[in-house]
Design a protein that fits this description.
The structure is a single chain. This protein is an all-alpha fold and 153 residues long. The chain starts with a helix and ends with a helix. The C terminus is likely disordered.
Length: 153
């Protein structure tokens, strides 16, 4: 029984709302024009049932074509997602290999630095470590030039 009251209230409320909105002249004219067009279309299709059937078939074909395109697009996107899933492990492996190469290069640079530092600190540097020989001779020549410049002034 409460359901009947609910439905009755909804129907009465909708009817009252429609009547109130029809108090506006523009709304009334718009409703009348659309009602006339709907009535004319209903009469036309009642007399031309074959045309109505073909219109429905055309709309059904459009819907099927749209569904087909959406399905194809979904399949394409799904395929691309699968490709990306397959690529992720390969990219990860390449990144790890690159990291290893960088670490090896870093280790080689550290070793080279240690070799240079030890060669500079040696009392008798090896012939391959000419850095200390050149550096000491250039330091002494620049200090001689500086002392000569000071004597002239």
């Amino acid at each position: 029984m409460s359901e009947n009251k609910l439905m009755t209230g909804i129907v009465v409320g909708a009817a009252v709302g429609a009547l109130v909105s029809l108090l506006d002249r523009n709304t009334r004219e718009d409703v009348m024009n659309k009602s006339r067009k709907a009535s004319e279309n209903a009469k036309y299709y009642a007399n031309n049932k074959d045309e109505l059937k073909s219109a429905f078939k055309e709309q059904a074909e459009r819907a099927q074509n749209l569904y087909s395109r959406i399905s194809e697009d979904a399949a394409y996107v799904g395929g691309k997602v699968e490709q990306v899933k397959k690529l992720v492990p390969e990219v990860k492996e390449v990144a790890q290999e690159a990291r290893g190469a960088v670490m090896e290069t870093k280790d080689a640079v550290v070793e080279s630095k240690e070799d240079v530092v030890s060669a500079v600190k040696e009392d008798n540097p090896s012939p391959s470590s000419s850095l200390t020989d050149d550096a000491s001779s250039s330091d002494s020549s620049s200090s001689n030039t500086n002392s000569q410049n000071q004597n002239r002034n």
